[in-house]
Amino acid sequence: VDPVDELSAQLEKLGSLDKYPNCYPDVNPQDIYRAHITSILHEITGVDHTIIYNALQWTLSLDKGDLVLAIPALRVKGKPNELGQQWLEKWPESPLVEKPVINGSFMPFFFKPVPLTQLTIPTARKLGREFGSNKANGLKDPSDPSKGQKRILIEFSSPNIAKPFHAGHLRSTIIGGFLSNLYSIAGWDVVRINYLGDWGKQYGILAVGFERYGSEDALAKDPINHLFEIYVKVNKEIAEEKEETEKLQKEGKTAEAQNIIENSTDEQARKYFKLMVDGDEKVLALWKRFRELSIDRYKETYNRLNIQFDEYSGESQVSEEAMNGAAKSMLEKGIAEESDGALIVDFSKHVQGKAGKALEKPIVRRKDGTALYLTRDISELLNREEKYHFDHMIYVIASQQDLHVKQFFKIVELMGHKEIASKVQHINFGLVLGMSTRKGTVKFLDDILRDVGDYMHEVMKKNQDKYQQVENPDAVADIMGISAVMCQDMAGKRINNYQFDMAVMTSFEGDTGPYLQYAHARLCSITRKANLSEEEISSADLSLLTEVHAVNLVRVLSQWPDVVQNTLRTLEPTTVLTYLFKMTHVLSSSYDHLRIVGSEPGLMKARMALYDTARIVLSNGYPIVGRVHDVPT
Ligand code: ARG
């Protein structure tokens, strides 16, 4: 029997796929197997389709099968092992799966290789860039695409103007970029927001500093570094003045101390910021220029990471009016109360027990009437709801701010916006340890990337033979450096801290960014050398792919759409990355066994179709976590 005919016969036998939740065989080859096994188990056990379908799990490694059922998950009375044996007695001959063997309370399934190959390779090659993405996830109603996409807001990166770009911002950028890519291939309408730290007395300090030390030339050339330098300088002056006044006060020279305080840089900055808050156009124009020039520079760097924001919002964009409104509403609803002239939220009065205590008593409006980080976030959230009518929103913020985020989500809920509170999510992450560069302090992302790029360049030079063949070593080192940083960040679970280690991340051995880049480059080079036309590859006789290495590679490749689905559940970059490393390991170990050059033409075509599928998976998977480049080998 022709395996393709056999497959379509099987599909027809399954009948309507509606009874299987999230079953999309057109884009996910494994869904056919899931549906097929479900229908067999349903016939035998009578258990509901949905329960069986959802109980079929991935395996940890290929030797454990392609899918596995934990027998107790079907909730049938009896001992799992005995139940399994009884079911096996009734197991029909299947064209798609081998007859299972019970292993304890598990029933592992091994797919028959020929139909799997016939299904996976053509599906992947037909879908190309779309293989692995399933736009159904992002539809408001998967059964009716005309109802449109769901909208997700992802707020990430969010550095502070004139202050260093620290590890927290680096991770937020990487994880936020990953989430944006993930949701976008899942069919969501993704809005990427950068919520800049661009407001507060520190911008008064910066302006006063600019009057003293600023240079228009330097600002135009390198706004981020120039502003940072000014900021550091003027803060040093403030510290000195403070020391001076404290000394005078200690000596009892109160009048002199007072005189310094009144004319101090700090006081000037406070007045300056007051003018900004009051909307003084002249001072706002300067601040606006700082902001815009900085954003222009940010954009260049984000582009290197393949990240583009849809909106540069920021603390400055939250209107005083909206914040006063929010504070008033908190007061009226009895959520906030006066305390020493300020407005606070005493959570222990609103949330019972330990949880309430843990949320503490944050201030939402200062004595002098100025608002705070917390209040801004509350207002901004309400504002985003109005502006975007989103279905979901993710904040990618370091776990150091867990308490802050909990407080502001809770306040929004207490204010009666239950619906809004239910669709916001905090994606947090741990620290990066030891992130200092060799060339001084980190000021912006550029400094980090440049440093890793330089390091990467040295690593490359160690292999002079290969190095000589690289056409543009600077550019290659730069790209490899970027993937090194990204992969190191994404290797573990988000919540874990990790050590920033240039030697480890830039190595070609081990599960690193350069290793993945190399795997991709090697595939591209094989493709070039084989030099087969699209028609030749498409016409390949895939039944020739019988070797264990070929079969195992197909099995891993067929998992890719499921990996994406699973990642949408875990929201962990490591879910994708771990898979990509697993796949590339199977791939590299197959090269010696599945040669192209020197094989007879039929085999050459079939193997090329297999490698092409691997290339598709790698180049679809890699951009989720970063950016793939065809680096010449
Ligand atoms: N700019 C802040 C910081 O550097 C991060 C902003 C996080 N986002 C938020 N909505 N609070 O700490």
TrEMBL record:
Enzymatic reactions: tRNA(Arg) + L-arginine + ATP = L-arginyl-tRNA(Arg) + AMP + diphosphate
Coiled-coil intervals, chain numbering: 231-258
Domain DALR anticodon binding: 516-621
Top-rank EC class of the record's enzyme: ligase
GO biological process, one term: arginyl-tRNA aminoacylation
GO molecular function: arginine-tRNA ligase activity; ATP binding; heme binding; iron ion binding; monooxygenase activity; oxidoreductase activity, acting on paired donors, with incorporation or reduction of molecular oxygen
Enzyme Commission numbers on file: 6.1.1.19
Cellular compartments per GO CC: cytoplasm
Statement: the UniProt record of this protein carries the keyword Protein biosynthesis: yes
Alphabetical keyword list: Aminoacyl-tRNA synthetase, ATP-binding, Coiled coil, Iron, Ligase, Metal-binding, Nucleotide-binding, Oxidoreductase, Protein biosynthesis
Family statement drawn from the similarity comment of this UniProt entry: Belongs to the class-I aminoacyl-tRNA synthetase family.
Protein name stated in the entry: arginine--tRNA ligase
Organism, as annotated: Xylaria multiplex
Coverage span on the entire protein: 4 to 636 of 1179
